[in-house]
Amino acid sequence: MDDMDRKLIAALRRDSRQSLSELAAVLNLSRTTVRSRMEKLQERGVILGFSVVLKGDLQRNPVRGHTMLGIEGRGTDKIVHKLYGFAAVEAVHSTNGKWDLIVELGTKTLEELDQVLAEIRKIEGVMTSETNLLLATKPSGRARRV
Question: In this structure, which long-range contacts are made by residues 78-85, counting pairs with CB atoms below 8 Å and at least 24 apart in sequence?
Fold first, then answer.
């Protein structure tokens, strides 16, 4: 992957709905070159796909947060399995540093979030936790507002 591929990916991250003509103008390349580069990035598995962010996705669970968990012992796989049993758990990430796991949560109310957190803390092997609420999502330029 060269510098131009990185610029192409950055342009797609700002707005993946841009036409080949728009991308070509931004990158100062021909449409054919842009299409060829995109196809090669897809063939090599650098670009896995394109997605759409819907307004309803953000409204479905307006109370969102990240919970960092400290795990005792080697029970991480069991804990991850239990975490995915909660409807409020949207993703679980392993990490390094002070915390062992980061859990993305989404609920309709603060009360629901509080209940889920209480249940997560009861899971055997979860020794400590810290939760940060996501108050507002700042636009990144990746999605164009309509």
Answer: 78/125, 79/123, 79/125, 79/126, 82/123, 83/120, 83/123
> Quick check: pTM over 0.85?
no
Q: How far apart are CA 17 and CA 21, in angstroms?
A: 11
CB 127 within 8 A of CB 72: yes
The answer to whether the CB of 60 falls within 8 A of the CB of 106 is yes
The span from the CA of 38 to the CA of 15, in Å, is: 14
Tens of pLDDT, residue by residue over 37-89, are 999 999 999 888 877 666 666 667 889 999 999 999 888 999 999 999 898 99
CA pair distance 67, 88, nearest whole angstrom: 12
